[in-house]
Structure formats: structure tokens, C-alpha cells
Amino acid sequence: MGKRSFRLGLMGLVATLGLVAAACAPMAPGGGVAPVNATFKATQITSNDSQDEVRDPLFGACIAIPNCNDEAYLIQVAFRVKIGQPGSAQAFVVTGDKINGLSEGETRALTGGQQAAVNFNGIQPLDVLDALNPSNKLEVFGTYTWAAEEDTINSLSGGANSVASIFTTALNGTLANASVPSDANGVVNLVLDALFDNFNTPFNLIVSNIPCLGLCDDVLGGSLHVGIGATGTLASVIDSVLATTTIPTINIPIVDIPPDIQGGGIYTLGSTKTFVQQYSGADGRHTYTLQGGPA
To answer: What does the alpha-carbon distance between residue 146 and residue 209 come to, in Å, rounded to a whole number?
Structure first.
């Protein structure tokens, strides 16, 4: 799905929410609800094509130099922002533990630090009436997830933290500092511009693998998973529309770090949502099962 189709899908979403809000307008706005926590984490990995292997050119067998298995892990660049609340944007990095000795074709359940769990604490979940109260701010949160494979030199943390800084600045300059437009299409464009347009220009980061002579950690690809702080009826309406909505592929020019976005998804606080995401690049392919929703 292209970016234009994605925009149109969300335009339909906002239009639907507008109808629900209009139906409830005569009623008094909600007074707010207690904050809740959300989490986004990986639960399973499959090595479809080993990134670390070197194959015999004649017979195709793996040559154990340095090995035939992957040491996979995830890096999550997490972000959150309240629409219309200046200075509310935050971003941080969570690096998962290594998944050692992952052989080609193997599937493993992930536990503990391997899940690279991102916790978003203190989100105020809004239902339809709550959203009508201007003192309540709808929160958008999410992760830019990188599928990585360890080599000799850990080279990715600097780039990930640089991207987190870019997210904070971009979201504070857009969503956090925005007045909600009266036109529904304007609301959609505001959100999309903040979350996606930065991926269409170079991040001006140093490609850290260049001076490493092939010894730096590799990134197979990235994905974007966005959470919306909605619950109850509001979450149900959003979830019904998002059932056919996907994150488009976005190629980031010039640089390898940060990686291209190869998909993703959107979820709410209504229930836990599962995503199956494949990352393909750097001569490897890994598939992760990811989960996002209320903690």
C-alpha cells in the first residue's frame, strides 16, 4: 500500500470518528479516566535465511567461517507524544538481548530481555466522550523497530539514539505544538506528516558500517508500529477501520542506518494486537511475531 492509500484509509477513520462524536455531542464530556500502561514486544523469531552464513559456491553448504548461525536482536526506537500539548514528545531506545546460535529454519519463542519490550507507562485512555473534552489529549506512541544481527563491533546504538533525538524534535515541532484543525482531513494530514514525512529525506547520519570492514552489526530492516491511546467504543471504531490498514513501505535514501521501513501496523488500547513482520536485507531474512496493546 502506498502513502496516498494510507492517507485515504485514515481519512475514512477520522470521518467515522466524527460521526460517533457528533452523535454524542449533546452529552456532557467525560471527566477523564485513570492512566494505564501499554507495551510493545517481540514474542517469536524465525530465521528464514541466515545473515551470518557464508555458503560454498559449488555445493551451497554453509561454511563455518565465522559460523552458520545468527546472533539476532532487536533495537526499538520508541516515541510518544500528546496531540496539542507542547513539549510532550519523548523518545528513547530499548535494545534487546541477543538470541544466540539461531540456525537457518529455526523458530524460537522469545523471553525476558530477548523480547526488547518497550513500556509506555501512564497513558490516559480516551473513549468517545473523553475525547470531546479539550482538556484531554489523545496520545500517540510507538516504535521504530530494527531487526539486527551481531558481528564483532556493536555499531548501531549511536545511530539509534540519533534517530530518537530526531523523533523528539520532529514531534514537538508538529503534533505536540499543533492546534487541532477543524477539518478532519487536516487532522489526518497533520498526523501523517509528523510520523512519515521525515522518512522521505536523509537522516544525515554517518553510515557506521563503512569503516568497519564488514565487522559491524548488520540491520536487516525496520518497521513502524503506532499505538493510539483509545479505549472502549472509540477503540472499537478505530480497530474496525484499521483491520484493512497497513503501514506502507518507505525507502530511506542514501543511508543504511536507519533502515528502510518494510511495514508495520497500528493498534489501540482496546486489546492486544499481534503482528507478523518479516525483515529482509543484509543477505538475511528474519520473521518476528510482535505484540502491542495494554500491558
So the answer is: 15
82-96, 101-115, 222-236: the lowest-pLDDT one: 222-236
3-state secondary structure of 34: coil
Q: What is the pLDDT of residues 28-79, one digit of tens each?
A: 344 456 899 999 999 999 999 988 665 555 555 555 555 678 999 999 999 9
Q: Is the peptide bond before 294 cis (omega within 30 degrees of 0)?
A: no
pTM of this structure: 0.83
DSSP bridge pairs for 228: 140, 268
* Contact predicate 54/161, CB 8 Å: no
Alpha helices in 63-178, H assignment, sequence order: 128-132, 157-172
Q: How far apart are CA 17 and CA 22, in angstroms?
A: 9
Q: Do the beta carbons of residue 120 and residue 227 sit within 8 Å?
A: yes
Written as nine digits, the cell of 108 is 524460537
Task: Name 94's bridge partners.
Answer: 76
Q: Using pLDDT thresholds of 50, 70 and 90, give the confidence band for residue 208.
A: very low
Q: What is the pLDDT of residues 248-293, one digit of tens each?
A: 888 876 667 788 899 998 899 999 999 999 999 888 899 999 999 9
Cell of 65: 567461517
Strand residue runs (E) in 64-185: 69-82, 90-95, 99-103, 107-109, 118-123, 139-149
Inform me whether the pLDDT recorded for 144 exceeds 90. Answer: yes
Residues in the chain, overall count: 295
Alpha helices in the chain (DSSP H): 3-24, 128-132, 157-172, 184-196, 232-242
**Identity of the residue numbered 7:** R
Instruction: Tell me the C-alpha distance between 282 and 222, whole Å.
Output: 12
Q: Is 207 helix (H, G, I), strand (E, B) or coil?
A: coil
The angle, 0 to 180 degrees and rounded to 10, between the axes of the packed helices 184-196 and 3-24 is: 140
Which spans in 25-151 are helix H?
Answer: 128-132
